[in-house]
Write a sequence for this structure.
């Protein structure tokens, strides 16, 4: 992840604020699209950057989110191996 972090650091203040608003509002797909457009990265990298920014915002601006982590990420694509591990953990 450290190789990708500078990509978000290069965003303008306006772009960073716009991205943060989208992430906090739960507009995950819009945030990922913005990252792809503004940073010129692939979908996979954009998802990784989005998750990293989300974690940062949860730590620094957590009160602004209107739901918990589980609800925020519900119905979001996950790797099949992650789904299997999650499902096995619920048994």
């Amino acid at each position: 992840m450290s190789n990708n972090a500078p990509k978000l650091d290069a965003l303008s203040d306006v772009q960073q604020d716009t991205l943060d608003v989208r992430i906090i509002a739960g507009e995950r797909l819009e945030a990922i699209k913005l990252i792809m457009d503004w940073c010129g990265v692939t979908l996979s990298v954009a998802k990784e950057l989005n998750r990293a920014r989300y974690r940062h915002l949860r730590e620094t601006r957590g009160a602004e989110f209107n739901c918990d982590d589980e609800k925020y990420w519900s119905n979001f694509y996950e790797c099949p191996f992650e789904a299997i591990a999650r499902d096995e953990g619920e048994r």
Q: What stands out?
A: The CA atoms of residues 13 and 19 lie 10 Å apart. Helices lie at 5-9, 13-24, 28-39, 43-61, 69-73, 80-90. The first helix runs from residue 5 to 9. The chain is about 70% helix and 0% strand.
